[in-house]
Write a structure and sequence with these properties.
It contains three helices and three strands; from the N terminus they run ααββαβ. With about 80 residues, the protein is α+β, with helices and mostly antiparallel strands. The chain has one domain: Fe-S cluster assembly (FSCA) (GMP Synthetase, Chain A, domain 3, 2-Layer Sandwich). One of its GO terms (molecular function) is iron-sulfur cluster binding.
């Protein structure tokens, strides 16, 4: 059985594919936790914290990259940033 630490490592590897795109705009993302329900909790860093495009980035970039590499993940949620 995979440990939470191993799962987070796999998620981080998936996020490495989108991090260069975030860095262009001065941002980044960090994995904070993975719940028992396999929901990834992320934290927006840098300019991503207050970006009005973060919701679209979450769905089109972050969530897609994670689900391709770590298909058992059921969702992705930000613990900071804009609240809609």
């Amino acid at each position: 059985m995979e440990t939470k630490s191993e799962l987070i490592s796999r998620i981080d590897l998936a996020l490495n594919e989108v991090r260069p795109h975030l860095a262009v705009d001065g941002g980044n993302v960090e994995v904070v936790d993975v719940t028992d329900e396999k929901v990834v909790k992320i934290k927006w860093l840098g300019n991503c914290q207050n970006c009005n495009m973060s919701i679209m980035t979450m769905r089109a970039g972050i969530e897609q990259a994670i689900r391709v590499k770590v298909p058992e993940i059921t969702g992705v949620e930000a613990v900071n940033g804009l609240v809609l």
